[in-house]
Each structure stands twice: as C-alpha cells, then as structure tokens.
Amino acid sequence: MEIQEHQITVLAGDYSGPEMMKAGLAVLAAVSAGTDFKYRLHAYPFGGQGIDQGGDPLPAATLAGCRQADAILLSAIGGPRYDGATATPEQGLLRLRQALGLFANLRPTQVTPALAPLSPVKEVADVDLVIVRELTAGIYFGQPRQEGDQQALDTATYTRAEVARILRVGFELACQRRHHVTIVDKANVLATSRLWRRVAAELAPQYPTVKVDYRYVDATAMQLINHPQAFDVIITANLFGDILSDEAAVLPGSLGVIPSASLGLTGPNLYEPIHGSAPDLVGQNKVNPLSMINSVAWMLRQSFGRADLAARIDQACQAVLAAGIYTADLGGTATTTEVTQAIVDALTAQAE
Ligand code: IPM
Ligand code: MG
Fold first, then answer.
1. From the CB of 242, is ligand 1 less than 6 Å away?
2. At the topology level of CATH, where does 128-250 sit?
3. How far is the CA of 242 from the centre of ligand 2 (A)?
4. How many whole angstroms from 242 Cα to the centroid of ligand 1?
5. What is the tens place of the pLDDT at every residue in 147-193?
6. Which ligand number lies closest to the CA of residue 90?
7. pTM of the model as a whole
8. Of 156, 224, 252, 296, which cross-links 115 as Cys (Cβ 3.0–4.6 Å)?
9. What gap in Å lies between CA 308 and CA 21, rounded to an integer?
10. pLDDT score at 1
11. Which fold has domain 1-104+256-352?
C-alpha cells in the first residue's frame, strides 16, 4: 500500500511567528524521521505578511491553501506595525476562523511536574483543565457593529444552534476526561448567557455521567488562581474564553507553552499557540518555541491519529524542561534554537 502523504498548510505569520514556526517544523521533521509519517508543507502569506504583499491579511490563495490542507499550522500574527490600520492581521485571523467554520477552540492548561516549580502561583500541583472557547460567534462577530468617536457599537449574539454545538464539544471532551464541565457566563446580566444556560440544561441529561456547574465569569477569574484544581472542562463564549485562557496560562509559568486546536465540523483543523507574535522579542532568538512545538504534537494526535509521535514530542519536551533548558519567559537562559535543538536531540536519542 502506498503511504499517504499528509498536506500541511503553514502560516508563519508576523514578528516572532517565523522563528516559532521554524522550531515547530524542526521538531516535526525530527519526530517523523525514519517513520512512515510522510508530509508536505505548503507555506502561504497571512496576517501582516498578506497586508505587506497585497493589502489583504487573508489573500484568496491563502484561504484556498487552507481549505485544501489536511491540517493547518499557524504561529502568530499582528504587531505594532499594523496597529490602527484599516486592514489588520487580526481581521485575517477572524475571517479564517469563520470561513473554515472553526467554531471550537480548545485551550489546555496542564501544569506538569517539570513546570510546577516555574509557576508564579503556589498551589498548582494537579492542575489539568481545558478551556473550550466558542470561536466563530458572539461579540467578536455580531452585527450591527459600528466604529465611532462619540459612540461605538458591538453586538453579542448567539443562536441556539451555535450554543448547542460548542456545548456538545465540551460535554464530549469531559466524557474522555474527568466528567466535569463548568459553563462560564455572565447570566446575571447578559441575555446570551441565559440562553447558554437554558440550552445547557436541555443537553445535560444526554450526558448523565457528566457533572455540570455554572459559574459567573468574574468569579471564575478568581477561582482560576485560587483553586484551579476545581476545573476540568470550562465551556465559554468567545470573549470570555479569550480572556480566561490568557489568565489560565499564568498557571504553567508562561503563555509561551500553551498550544490550541481550532476544530470545525468538516475540513481541516487549525493548530496555533494561544499567544501573539511577541514583537518585543523578534530576531533575538528568545521566543519560547514550546507553544508551537506543542501545537505540532496536537496536530499529529488529533488530525493524523499519531498519538505515538505526539507522545514522543511530549516526552522530549518534559525531559528538556526537567533538565533546566528553557527560555527567559520561564525564568531560564536558553535561546529558542537551544531549546529546539535539545528537543530534537532528545527525539533522536529516543529513536536510537
Ligand atoms: C487569540 C487572540 C485573538 C483573539 C486575536 C489576535 C484576534 O487573542 O487567539 O486569543 O482575540 O481571538
Ligand atoms: Mg487571546
């Protein structure tokens, strides 16, 4: 039988994006060397790069390249050069999420034994939670929307169908984990949140093994630091998920280690770090490559069914962290390329 070649679309993005992507791809090459995992990379301009080349953060060829892919790897887009412009890199990202129907964004926070000592929070043993963030609706996309100096307008909308499908993703994920979902909202104030609660109450009986909690987003923000062990799967709206996932990223010591997966009903999934393009670090060989490398591992597991290769990457990353090789955001002194090389070496050593 001929071995299938997987098609991976690569969006290297802006500022530190290309350095992060280079690290991720080096690890992908190392872990697949000598295995039957074959792939081809297709790089496209996206975000600021797309604006620079033709004024569009999501060029038509880039969108077509994403649609054709088996999976998409994105590093990060945006930065000060594009702030305040009419066409922004962020618009490209939002359009891409919507065009591909990537409505479910999974953002895990796991404090492994190697990371626990690096956390600024004292009690982080056993933290293992996933934020399931709705990604293609809510206040990010609601109409009408109006820019203005005297008054501006954003609209938060959710339909029953949009709520039900993201809740299902969260409930099903909980069934593979610790059977606990926390639905995070602002139901004491927002109508959309009350719709979320009604739909959740209707769906919950279909998942009898799952314990359901409802919690306000402000209280959740506090609990994430006070007692993050209280959470297994958090399901929440687009804006709340954006905010809480950055907060949760403090627990493992840095945003720089956290990957994400954006999933749709059909078509390719997209894997990207949850953080931005680290403009202040660009070209200095300082950016943490782990979030990108973890995104590569997730792609292997989720899009290509290669849990074996993903586990090898996880193991190599934990070994390198435990050996004290990490970047400055985690309090270390290693460069991007040193961390990456150490992981590549650990993978090569495993294979021997
Ligand atoms: C994220 C980012 C994006 C978002 C920005 C870049 C538009 O913060 O993926 O969390 O708000 O969704
Ligand atoms: Mg964000």
1. yes
2. Rossmann fold (3.40.50)
3. 5
4. 6
5. 999 999 999 999 999 999 999 999 999 999 999 999 999 999 999 99
6. 1
7. 0.96
8. 252
9. 22
10. 60
11. Isopropylmalate Dehydrogenase (3.40.718)
